[in-house]
Design goal:
Length: 486
């Protein structure tokens, strides 16, 4: 069956930074169907050769795992066309149908890398033109809606034209290698399951830290903020993978059923509890490395009195047998000291220490790092003989390290490429089902409500620091601390 993929929003940031590079990598890796076509479309008027040149210039600004080669790029471009499109005009969808028919494509993916407010209209247009046949699929980029209500409206409008198995809701964190590794670690090994529970684990910390600010996305970010941009999706998906029960098999719905159960067991934080369990912050000017950076409110397209949060820390709890009483600390922020994403599983202390214990880092920890490197570390305690007299006999923390690059060589398949390959294959296991998405929105809704009703601006933090002090207090209340505070 001939395959084609149509990118709507083909000149946007996402398209040139992530989607087209991922298609190009799939092509380089031989994972793009031989007769496949790519159609990029946007409002900008240009022809296909001009689009190729534009894309090449953008590609040159990116960093690549294997050097960029012009001849490979040209090979890829032989599959890529560009067409200006006005998504509000019915004629656009008629033209698109003619294009699809002329290319004799049966298997077609429509990738909606546009504002979510256009999703309904696009899906309606596609359906009216008969572009929702059995082998046609839509990919919806996040954010899907801005709250529970709007997400429901979009989902219900899209589902009038496409069945659930034709809808691919992207959360690009699910495409990351380390998320695959975490599933393999939990469900492909027997040693973790007995300790993966409240009896052995004291708390879990999940951090998504970025050095970057909002870049050129101020207008989008003003509407989103960290809660919608990262917590509702990436952070909650990671939490699900850590906390879910073993699925019956690898099928998409088996996995999604288990993630959904976790989301449904998340204890709701009531609006009056938000100030106790949630910290929101916004970066001020500061220094990252050696570079001075501006405050959020001085970024392009950001209001000078903006109260949009660029940092969130949350203490969550999962009310089920496995996890009752175990705090899950989640946090994310822009303009933090370094880029990094990690999940730290903190184990309980030994019931009766017979050795002198170290004063810090005395507990076992499993650290699953997603970024910048893909590693798993097990932190244990051991005797060390070459210590000073004062330290002799005391246990010291040591690390068992699994570096996936060392074990398997350089990773070549990046998140978006993995997801696009799944879309091409029509496999839904790494995509989010509508009920998961609704459950996630439902959980963040009281936080959104509390903030909307609260005129107090987010807590300031200097760019280049780990966020507001209140985030440290969130963990310290229970005698825990974030890794950098230890
Ligand atoms: C996106 C957010 O979903 O994820 C961005 O919209 C964020 O604000 C990005 O920068 C982070 O992704 P990654 O893969 O670079 O950690």
């Amino acid at each position: 069956m001939r395959f084609s993929i149509v990118f709507m929003g083909g000149t946007g940031d996402l398209a040139w930074r992530k989607l087209m590079p991922a298609m190009f990598e799939a092509f380089r890796h031989g994972a793009f169907p031989q007769m496949g076509r790519v159609l990029a479309s946007a409002r900008e008027v240009m022809d296909t050769p001009a689009y190729h040149e534009w894309l090449w210039k953008k590609f040159e600004t990116l960093s690549w795992s294997e050097p960029l080669s012009r001849s490979e790029f040209e090979g890829f471009c032989a599959h890529v066309e560009y067409r200006p499109m006005d998504l509000s005009s019915p004629k656009t969808y008629e033209d698109l149908r003619q294009w699809v028919d002329a290319k004799q494509c049966e298997s077609v993916v429509f990738y909606l890398a546009t504002a979510p407010t256009l999703f309904t209209r696009i899906c309606e247009g596609l359906a009216k033109a008969g572009l929702n046949r059995a082998h046609m699929r839509v990919v919806l980029e996040k954010p899907l809606g801005k709250d529970l209500q709007t997400a429901r409206e979009i989902n219900s409008a899209v589902s009038q034209h496409f069945s659930e198995r034709q809808i691919f809701r992207i959360d690009h964190y699910l495409g990351k290698q380390s998320v695959q590794n975490l599933m393999a670690l939990r469900f492909g090994n027997s040693i973790f399951e007995p300790v993966w529970r409240r009896e052995s684990i004291s708390h879990v910390q999940i951090t998504l830290a970025e050095e970057l600010g909002v870049e050129a996305r101020g207008a989008y970010y003003e509407q989103a903020g960290a809660l919608r941009d990262l917590v509702q999706n990436h952070l909650l998906q990671l939490l699900c993978i850590v906390a879910m029960e073993p699925p019956a098999n690898e099928e998409a719905d088996s996995i999604r059923d288990e993630k959904l159960k976790v989301l449904r067991c998340l204890r709701s934080i009531q609006p009056h509890e938000v100030s106790q369990y949630v910290v929101r912050g916004q970066y001020r000017a500061g220094v990252i490395g050696t570079q001075a950076v501006a405050a959020y409110v001085d970024e392009k397209n950001v209001a000078h009195d903006s109260i949009t949060e660029t940092y969130v820390a949350i203490r969550a709890e999962i009310d089920n047998w496995r996890w009752a009483g175990v705090p899950f600390f989640l946090r994310t922020g822009k303009r933090l000291p370094q880029r990094g994403a990690e999940i730290v599983i903190n184990f309980r202390p030994v019931p009766h220490p017979i050795f002198p214990m170290p004063t810090v880092n005395a507990n076992n920890r499993l650290v699953i790092r997603l970024q910048p490197e893909d590693t798993i570390e097990m932190h244990l305690l051991s005797k060390a003989s070459n210590r000073s007299r004062a330290e002799q006999g005391r246990l010291v923390p040591v690390k068992l390290d699994l570096d996936f690059r060392e074990a398997f060589g350089k990773q070549t398949v990046e998140g978006y490429e993995r997801l696009l390959r799944k879309v091409i294959a029509g496999r839904l296991d790494l995509f989010v089902r509508f009920d998961e998405q609704e459950a996630a929105w439902k959980w963040v809704a009281p936080i959104q409500q509390a903030w909307a009703a609260d005129p107090v601006p987010p807590r300031p933090y200097a760019a280049g620091t780990w966020g507001p002090a209140a985030a440290s207090a969130l963990t310290a209340r229970e005698n825990f601390s974030w890794p950098e505070d230890q």
